[in-house]
Amino acid sequence: MKQSLSKIESAFLEEISQVSDADKIEEIRVSYLGRKAGQLTVLLRGLKDLSIEEKKLIGPAANLLRQKIESTLTEALQKAGSSAVPEFDLSLPGKISQDKSLGHLHPITQINRELIRIFQSMGFQVLEGPELDNDYYNFEGLNFPFDHPARDIQDTFFIDSKITREEPRDFTRNDWVMRTQTSNMQVRVLEQAEPPVRCIIPGRVFRNEAIDATHEHTFYQLEGFVVDENINIGQLVWTLKEIFRQIFKQEVKLRLRPGFFPFVEPGYEVDMFCVFCGGSDVSCKVCKGLGWVEMLGAGMIHPNVLAAAGYDAGRYTGFAFGIGTGRLAMLKYNIPDYRLYMQGDLRFLEQF
Ligand code: FA5
Question: Superkingdom of the source (predicted)?
């Protein structure tokens, strides 16, 4: 067996020294290492019939010869300039060169992650909700009776098909909508959770509305609500101020105006002082010179909503808010136009 190995070795070295073109080199490879009838392959196959002592002796020598043949073939191919030989090592890890920038997070993702971190530090649970939802959770359960004009506040994308999906309840109306608000999670969560409840739901929402510097048809909200005994407006205001203080790393001026949302009573619209012009520029695209930008809706959860979720509305109270996270990111990162988020323009995205 040993003699056969040396015969193969010298024959191979003799043959390879006489060829210089890639096709011939390939022929030699097949003749020695080919899977079916390669001379060395056949010999290696015979190893299994040897005794253990012989295997120990011949096995390593045969493997060594195979490696030698392989590396000699590769060298020969390199000399022949074959494209079959990679010019670089594909198994090496990539290099980060100065002129190639790393990927980075979209500003909405950044603000969401920051909000999640802050809310989690305050004991809020983070949940997700469906973007396509039943009329019940988006409207009816939230105290928007069918055909009530309050539904017109949010221009809705209605879905023109019957969907069957496993849901925790039978719907009074089997109508589906692209959710217009992350508030669609209020009843859904409360139906399944026991108080105390403290959670946030960041997500995408959809409205069939005209777009401008502060409005998109597809935009981002973060819903939050707390339900327990003795929950009050003071706690809502404190929570909002604290969140804004942590996001902007300074005290932020917020303004509460009475606002109507059928699922809260009392309800508020909350504005933040415009950091772009402070109200001094009538041509400011963000606040239009008013000095304030509407950032969120909020209020005390309406007893009808608590009752729809099966809560004893006499015993439990709760507050809820829905922050426009895209608007928040505009003020935090000085973004003058909401439409920039969705345009995929690298000149914009690379700034974050
Ligand atoms: C609501 O969507 C309520 N669900 C908020 C709420 C939650 C109220 C809980 C009470 C209790 P509103 O339609 O105002 O409310 O939207 C909330 C925020 O989303 C706005 O303050 C604004 O920051 C943002 N927003 C609303 N419409 C758009 C839009 N078209 N484009 C971008 N951001 C928007």
Answer: Bacteria
